Amino acid sequence: MSGLLGAKVVITAGGGGIGAAMARAYAAQGAQVALCDIDKAGAEAVAADLPGALGLGTDVTDEPAMEAFWDRALDHLGGRVDVVCANAGIGGPVAPLAEIAMDDWRACLAVNLDGAFLACRRAAQVMGPQGSGVILLTSSTSGLFGVPTRSPYVAAKWGIIGLMKTLAMELGPMGVRVNALCPGAVDGPRMERVVAAEAQARGMTADAVRALYAEGTSMRSWVTAGEIADMAVFLSSDGAKHVSGQAIAVDGHTERMT
């Protein structure tokens, strides 16, 4: 992809899964990456494999911790940021709304939505005066549909879409593009935990739940973290220089949710 050699990239939740795949994909294009993750060891391990990368343990719901991460990242990247991937998220509780505890609701929204706000606020403060940049928020196909037993997660991921749309309007005149990635079911440990929770809540086997996810797509398949990262790289490149304000699904075309 053009335009990413020497780019400065910040990624939240970069210590595993989609975030780690993003970090590797950007580095493969010649970008320099600063990433954080609640899993400090994971963040450090991913960064250690990438040239000139920084990896820090950070709780994206903790405002002072996020400001400290941003300070370190900007110092490491020379004061400039070209791409920000607000990627942190958790699946949250799996249960009917009537059975969800307030603390569990708040915890899910805090990581998914508050974390995105804190990442994007500092990105806007840097990129606006800079007059350029790309912000990518990780939503989900759950940000496009309703999903029974997943109300906190769905509410947060729909909120991500609204945040993205508004930020695209605010920053577009300054030369900053903002989009949201909407992954479908992504192979990996995180979705395996979601599948296990849904299987228990529904009285089904994990294999049956996995099959339902695949059957809900036109392509009858799951996607990989690498495929999400490939789309992130494209959206950050000159090839997407007029793509902004979009919720872009990488999901094999979801027809219905489980």
TrEMBL record:
The keyword Cytoplasm does not apply. It comes from the Bacteria. It holds the Pfam family adh_short_C2. One of its GO terms (molecular function) is oxidoreductase activity. InterPro entries: NAD(P)-bd_dom_sf, Sc_DH/Rdtase_CS, SDR_fam. Keywords: Oxidoreductase. Transmembrane segments: none annotated. Belongs to the short-chain dehydrogenases/reductases (SDR) family. This is 3-ketoacyl-ACP reductase. It comes from Marinibacterium profundimaris.
